[in-house]
Automatic annotation (TrEMBL):
Keywords: Cell cycle, Cell division, Cell membrane, Membrane, Transmembrane, Transmembrane helix. It is a multi-pass membrane protein. PANTHER family: CELL DIVISION PROTEIN FTSX. This is Cell division protein FtsX. GO terms for biological process: cell division. Its main location: membrane.
Length: 304
């Protein structure tokens, strides 16, 4: 009997405040969509970091023809200088830092360049003889880049030492900024949702003062009186959270999985399994948001 009464009170409240409930659903949907998108971005960033940081190298670029680097004042790197650099990289002094070394000659560099820019205007613009030779160095600890830089930054025949980690850090910094912006928007929208839930519950409580007064007189408990109001907010927030999860699932299924993944097959992008895990979290956030907002509102506007 009590369950039937609570359900009827919930239906009455949702019907009386339909426009406000719809607003709560929409604001919760938008805010939790931003929250879920930010979570997915962070999961993807972590996955990309694990993938790329295990593969990044330190590139020791050797002097090409006509280089303006002070180390290249004598012209293009000679075979003797290349051998000296190789010996240093394979020396016992660097054995604790260097995992693997391989040499990229002009022909290999040119082939990789043509493959990378095959469909652009840069293809075919640089002849083989103008390509830079380089040593590609995999480190045992990628953060020990400065050791290699100190050894070779002033070595004759070395034009430049480049740490690919730094390039990736710049990329991930930009993505992290976008994530922070998304989180900021989500927090703002969540505040709006909390305020809307509180307003909806307050209007519902004021419109049913007579019913709650009668319930008090017949000895109904505080929990029984407050429960329908709390569940109204929970229902609206849950619907918004489910819509947010469904939207993220559609984006991952049709855009990321259907369109983007085939174009970047080198590493795995977020999938529906990640969305399911995040979707559960969004529902929990929505429910907690509704419960807390409802209880705080009822303490002020519904004296029981």
């Amino acid at each position: 009997m009590r369950v039937q009464f609570v359900l009827s009170e919930i239906a009455t409240g949702l019907r009386r405040n339909f426009s406000m409930v719809l607003s709560v659903i929409l604001v919760t949907f938008v805010s939790l969509t931003f929250v879920g998108a930010a979570m997915l971005m962070q999961m993807q960033i972590s996955s990309m970091k694990d993938y790329w940081y295990d593969r990044v190298e330190v590139a020791v670029f050797l002097c090409p023809p006509d280089s303006e680097s002070p180390n290249c004042a004598t012209g293009e790197v000679t075979d003797e200088q290349i051998q000296e650099i190789r010996d240093q990289l394979e020396s016992p002094e660097l054995a604790a830092y260097v995992d693997e070394v391989y040499f990229e000659d002009k022909e290999t560099a040119h082939r990789l360049f043509e493959e990378q820019f095959a469909d652009t205007s840069l293809a075919g613009t640089i002849p083989v003889e103008q390509m830079s030779q380089s040593f590609r160095v995999s480190l045992i600890d990628p953060e020990q880049y400065e050791i290699i830089n100190e050894y070779f930054s002033t070595t004759p025949g070395v034009e430049e030492v480049v740490d690919q980690n730094r390039l990736l850090d710049q990329l991930f910094s930009i993505i992290n900024i976008a994530t922070v912006i998304a989180i900021g928007i989500a927090v703002l929208m969540l505040v709006c949702a909390v305020l809307l839930i509180g307003t909806t519950i307050r209007l519902s409580a004021q419109s049913r003062r007579r019913e709650t007064g009668i319930m008090r007189l017949v000895g109904a408990s505080n929990t029984l009186i407050q429960l329908p109001f709390v569940l109204e907010g929970v229902v609206a927030a849950t619907i918004g959270a489910l819509l947010a999860g469904g939207t993220l699932a559609a984006i991952v299924q049709f855009f990321i999985g259907g369109w983007l993944q085939p174009r970047v097959p080198t590493f795995t992008l977020v999938g529906l399994g990640d969305v399911v895990a995040i979707g559960v979290g969004l529902v929990v956030i929505g429910v907690l948001m509704a419960v807390i907002s409802s209880l705080l509102t009822l303490r002020r506007y519904l004296k029981v």
